[in-house]
Amino acid sequence: MAASKMKNLRKRGDVWYGSVHVDxxxxxxxLSKDRREAQRxxxxxxxxxxxxxxxxxxxxxxLADLTVREALEEVNRRRRLLPNPPKTVDDEAKRLAxxxxxxxxxxPLLELRARHLVALARVLREKVSExxxxxxxANTQANIWGVVVTYLKAEERRLRRELEVTWQSPxxxxxxxxxxxxxxxPRGYFRRDEVEALISDHRIPLYRRVLWHGLFGTGMRLxxxxxxxxxxxxxxxxxxxRILLRRQRARSGAGWQPLKEDKHGVGITxxxxxxxxxxxxxxxxxxxxxxWVLHYTRFPxxxxxxxxxxxxxxxxxxxxxxxxWLQQDCATVGATGRAVHCTRNTFITLVDxxxxxxRHVAKGITHSVAGDAQDGYRRSEWLQRCAVMQAFxxxxxxxxxxxxxxxxxxxxxxxxxxxxxxxxxxxxxRARMRVQ
Length: 436
Prior knowledge:
436 residues; mainly alpha; three-stranded antiparallel sheet; 18 helices; 8 strands
């Protein structure tokens, strides 16, 4: 074949691809493994595309009136209809409604330009959060920007595929300095003596000491631990008991979803060894005279939550309650009040101090690590995780040793989130509902 006729054919691997230029755009298709057959299919493809009628005028008229709000809402609706919709689809809709639509929502999509997105980025930098009364964090701005870029790209693909309209998202035209960028922020963690005080001080109710013991002793996210049931604890495992973690609470607060690392919804289960100290605390909570029976007047079943609401064992703990409890209990023992997620940072930090040589194994306790076909045959990985947990120095202190803790160097009383003044400012759920 002459070179002039072969210029629109390209071989990738064993397959020939053909490209055709129509109406200022390039259409490329996989044709055949045979060169002569690919040439014939390319001629048919060229003829079909050139004879194809233009898009319906009605669709083009509707597209001219399409606003950014309508386009992005349609993208969100389609993402919800996917076989495995993204877990963040609700958060994405809320970010767009709160931060994007008020700025560029009424702009016609085909008239959206880079200057509009530059203005959006400037508004995000200057915007003050209604909850914290502080400017939006850099990572919050980056998350909002990421949703905008993803949705505009999805709409660009839809227009090209369904309406054959060539439109380019202006997000690609912005300079890096004009886009919001995520930053790595240091995460705080509790000192070891603060952890021991929170799980040992008898001024703290038993069910809350078990809750702190579970969060500090497993490194789980709060959304993961609050979904655990008594049946998820395998007491027969060796050399340590294990927790079979299969789900976590949905971001919307209603229902449950697969683990965060389970991006394809295939049902990942994370096996978490139970620290000997945590195992003793769970047994005391499950069958001790001051445990479950005292609060709910019966023994728990496998379907009951491990640490449910104190007023209703059929419901999981709310994140707002756990946050308030942590600030109150930190004030009780004299610890620096921190966010609940800092319990996860604390586990990772203390385990790294106690077993630095097993750092690569410890990651499998807090995060689901992608495996291979041989994972089902490995026994050494579970034994190594148990070795990490056995090396982790975590335990309750005798009652006589529990005293109020001094603040760490650099932690001024004004910085302490658990001060009485700050605890009083934490809104209750009913107060937040009144504000909304």
